[in-house]
Predict the 3D structure of the following.
Amino acid sequence: MLQKPHLSLVAPVSDVGGRELLTIEALFSAYSGYVATLAARLLGSGDAEVDDVVQDVFWLASRRMAKIPDLVQGRGWLATVTTRVVGRKLLRRRFRALFHASQGGGNVPARGATAEERAILTRLYEVLDGLPTQARLAWSLRYLEGEPLDAVASACGCSLATAKRRVAAAKSVIDEVFRDD
Amino acid sequence: MTDRKWGDLAKKIESGWGPERERAARVGLDHRAATRRVAMGVLVSVAALAFAAGATGAFMHWRTHEATNTVSLAPSATPLGGAVETVTVTRLSPETVLEAMPEHHGRGFELRAGGARFSAPHDAAHPFVVVASDVVVEDIGTTFTVQYLPGDKLQVAVEQGRVKVRMHGTETEIAAGDSLELALLPAALAKPRGKGGPAVASWRPLAEKGQYDEAHAALTKAGPNAVRDETADLLLAADVARLGGYPAEAVPYLERVLRAHASDPRSGLASFTLGRVLLDELGRPGEAAEAFARARAGGGPLAEDALAREVEAASRAGDVTRSRELAREYQAKYPHGRRAKAVSRFGGLD
């Protein structure tokens, strides 16, 4: 009778040792442009607000580096933080609008857009300004950023069902407004 | 509009992110980090201070209670009525120097420094006595406090009962709730007091070792007569005062050097130091300018600095003409002077 070879269980090789420690510098270099673009699309506004968001996001990142496993996963983490920071900014903007202290959006940074596209974008952000912030963010991530629903849920910090509900709520309003376009 | 079209349209939205804004964001982040470091530093300092204050408070509380316990004395003579009553003495500060007077059998103390609270049952046959400098406090059944105050003063405050205070043949009674402040004679402060004498005169070695806080405390206890009327001693006392954190107290010592020892080669140094104290510590630029003028009048190595500081003092005193005049004089005398820049600034020659 053939004897079975002696087998022993070996722990999987850890890749931690070979991984370089992620630095805020590397994260900033890789993703500051992405964060700025995402912020611009979520806010629908120009330079100053976007700069604030970028600073806030990377400031938070610098204090939470331990939570970011590597550069690849850093993108998703930054998207979540950017969504939250923009959410707070939108709420503040709405609050200020109550006292007529803010004009809201209206200055969509779309330099390469045609006049017609610019008009559509301006109208879109007017509609988005009227939507609940969470629904607005979910819809923007889904349709402007093209993120899948699970990524939307993750970025918005809600369940998949909630994300779907928020996207659907915003979509129904936007579809209604732009039905004839 | 189709869902896909929104994605295409969104691609037209550009943040305009570029190297310049990236650099600005980095600067902003650095600034935040620096602010946070400062804030954390302040927070840590405040916490450390609070902890230190708490620890000091607890220590002082412990010390006070310990002191109370250790010096509670059973009177050597049984009081009238035969009940055993105790004399309680509480030192009010760590600097308190208190000695029992043996001839009073536990009912007499000499207060040499600091302050103490006494609680003693009245005994007509054996009055409880506290001697402080040339003041004698005698109780008539009471709790009272005797404490040296700055400026050669002594305070006697009565909580319960009454005390008699004798000083130079006059006698005053103080009732509960009252207090009396007495001006002590310098001669009485400076006179030798048995074993306590060296402790009172110990400011000099402390000053020479650079322990100015302790030296100042010792000098305050010892009184002004503990400083000899010699240039070296007066300058040392002035150092004790200003480096111990009491610059105003340095002024009389320095002025005494200028008045009584004007011919001493160190009088220029005294004058310069006086100018610095008046200008930097006491904010009296007009008088400082006069002191610097005296300091440079004698020439010597301090003359250049004295002239430069005189320009600054005149400028701070608002005497623009004088400061400009002095600044020109400085430029003429010391064209490559090491304080030329400051002189030009204060003299308005920039």
Observations:
- Chain B has 13 helices and eleven strands.
